[in-house]
Structure formats: structure tokens, C-alpha cells
Amino acid sequence: MTVSEPELRPYEAELADGAVPAQRRDGVVVGEFPGLDDLDNPHYRDERRWVAGCVARIRSMPRPVTPLHEIALPAQLAGLKLYIKDETVHPTKSHKHRLAEALFLNAFANGWLRSDGPVVEASSGSTAISEAWFCRELGMRFLAVVPAGTAARKKKAISELGGEIKEASGAAISAVARKTAQETNGHFMDQFTYAERAYDWRADHGIAAEVIEAVDPDWFVMGAGTGGTVASVARYARYCDRKVKICVTDPENSAFFPGWRDDDRAATAPGSRIEGIGRPVVEPSFLFPLVNRMIRVPDPASIAAMRVAADRLGVRPGASTGTALYGALKILHGMHERGETGTVVTVLCDPGERYLDTYYDDDWLAQRGIDHTPWVPVIEDFLDHGTWHPPATWTAPPVPATVLWNM
């Protein structure tokens, strides 16, 4: 049986990369340790005292319930409510802080981390920043493998937390991260494979419990980068028999939407312009059965919703929040049209200060053919009057000429 690479656990991957399994020769077992058949593990030390200290340090960190803000809706939408979960209050100012904590606890419990080896991740964004923060707190070395050409601002945010940077071509970034971990006796966290497995979705301090126990929503709306957060909410809802359904909002040029629509995990796409969500391939942690609905959101609509939210929330969000907010408003519109009442929750994923030279820069948008202005009144009119009138005509940005490995 052949196991696909993303499903290999670190120790299995190490064996696949060259370790020789035991073989029989003339009835005698031969291999790396001829004549020895009673050994302590020569590859992985049992550093239980160190592991226990690191786990205790993580578990002692404050875990405040992040705020859930109600967004005012017009009188025309009476009976409907919209909330946004503000994840920017975490120490690393992103919902990826929860993911990083889960990945570390999962890796410690599985014996994958070593006191003398680095943590390696393929990321140039919020995940790398959050993992670098945890490594600093735990006194561990962190190495981020980032796509070549990653903005200096992003690399600076990682290095300021003590992280090291290694560049690679976008398509090879995960392979380079895995190889780097093997060469340095480190561990490749591999967020895209382990996110859905690492999240403790039964926990009462997770985002799922915080949202569902607070407002018992009808819909939870969010974009997917790894798919780990939406999987945790969906699982908690099934486990606790709650009504909430999951809608994933996907940006243009992402493989998630066509893959889910066609039930095709081999789907590919050019890759997303919206940082943190959308991928050129269907990642292992994106689980089709847990997603009730998907909405493909035009990039200009994501930027418009982000800009309007910045004016109304008192905090600048990133573009992935705009993608989710657009989908939440579209769901509310459908509920209103059907005469339904209920609650929709979305997430403020990270702060817009990380994107002042990109999504909040009109020149940067123009260079990429993104004109968000026709979509701004769509968002404003719905929030002011409850009317939903997408533009009759708008200019779609050109498809990226090369694959975008947005990580």
C-alpha cells in the first residue's frame, strides 16, 4: 500500500527518506543493528521532563475568551443578528495563535519535538509569527521557510520574535521545510496537514465552544487556509448536537471551492491573492464533509468588505476578514429573503496593520487590477438599509500569471 506524502508522520517520513528496514538473510535478521534485538530507541530520546515543562508552560499561559462583537444591522433586518469574533486580542494578534498552541501541544504529546532541534514551518504569515512567538516563550529555535520574494515587512515580523528565515520557491516550500527539519534534527510542524488533527475541538476554551455556547449561531462563516478552524467548529457542533452550519468563503483562484464542489481532492488552481486563505491545492486539513456551504468571493468584494469594516468596527481587519464578512452578509440576505430569523458569526482573523502596504494601498491594488470601488456601496447599502444589489458590471482582476503560494 502506498501512502501519499502529506499523510506521512515525521518518523514515517524519515524512514521513507533512507532508513533501511530489517531484512532476513539466510534466516537471520540483518539491518542497521546486526546481532542486536533489544534496544532503546536510537533516534528519539524520551525527554519527558523537558516535554512536561514545556507543556506546563503552554497550559499556564492566559487563555482569555476573545470578544464577540455584535455588528449593528438595520431595522429592515429585524430578527437577524451578526457577530464578529475578535481574534486580534491574542498575543500574536491572530486566530493562528490558537493553531500554533494546538500544533505545539500535539507535537509534544507525539514525541516529535527535541530540545536540541528547531521547529520548522512553511509559512510567511500569521502562522509563522505565532509559532515564532511560542518558540521564544519556550526557549526553542524557530526557522520559517518562506516563498522567495516574501515582503521584507513579513520577514521582519518573524525575525523580531527570534525566528530565522530561509527562502525557497513557492511550489517547493513544504518539501524544503521537511528537508530542513531532517537536516537539523528538527521538526516540521506542517500546519496544512496537522491543523485539523491538532485542534482540541472538545475543549471548552476553543473558538468553537466560545462561539456556540455564547450565541448558539445558525451559521459560522470563515475562509479556509488550512481548514483547521472550521473543522473544529463543525466537530464541536456535531459532538454537542448544536444547529450551527459551516460556510467557507473562498477567494478567487483557490482550489478549495472547485475541489469541494466536485468532490475532487486533486483539484488545483493558480492560488489566492487574499493572504491566509485559499490555496493552489486542496490541503489535507480541509475536510469536505464538514462544510455545509461554500461561497466563492470576488477579490474586489473581499477588499470592499474589509475597507467598510475598517470604517465601522473601530479596528482595521485583514482581507480574509473581508472575504468572510461578504459571505456572512450574503447569508443574512438569503435568510431575510426567506423570512427567517437567526444568528450568523464570522471572525476578525488578524489586524489590518499587517497589510497597510498591500490591501489598504490603492496603488498596490491598481497594479494587480483590483478595483474594489463598485463593491463598496453593496456592503454599505446592506449594512444601512438591508438591500443587496451586487454591481451589474465589474472588472475581474486578471488570473495570476504564476501560481501564488500564499502561506
TrEMBL record:
Domain Tryptophan synthase beta chain-like PALP, chain residue ranges per copy: 65-350
Single Gene Ontology BP annotation: alpha-amino acid metabolic process
Zinc in keyword set: no
Cofactor(s) of this protein: pyridoxal 5'-phosphate
InterPro entries from the UniProt entry: Cys_Synth/Cystath_Beta-Synth, TrpB-like_PALP, TrpB-like_PALP_sf
Chain ranges passing through the membrane: none
Keywords: Pyridoxal phosphate
Alphabetized PANTHER family for the sequence: CYSTATHIONINE BETA-SYNTHASE
Name this polypeptide is given: Cysteine synthase A
